[in-house]
Input
Amino acid sequence: MASPYKKDPVNPMMSDSELKNIIKTRLPEAGENPWFVNRVMNRLPDKPDKRVISWAERSCYIIASLILVGIWVTTLVHTYLFGLTTARILIAALVPALSLVCAVIVAAPSIRKIIHSL
Output
């Protein structure tokens, strides 16, 4: 059985209007059926809901932020009072890294959404 579609290659760099014209001229017309649109629309998946942060997740973010701020303040105060030790240098390296990781984890979904919208 022969296919109703023409086998001409389509250029991937084609503009939308050129592609629209090709579809109109080369593809067969759908038969008239008033229920077609309703049946198709009823079978489409629902749009995903906007992600809602649960109270547990929100409280974990708040607690983690408070702990991180507490570590920052404690490290700065102890460094000022007792001087710079090996432990303080280690904490001074780890706390900014931990802060950066936490910021990236919290911001990653928003950054991904912005990149995909471009």
Summary: Helices lie at 16-26, 36-43, 55-82, 86-117.
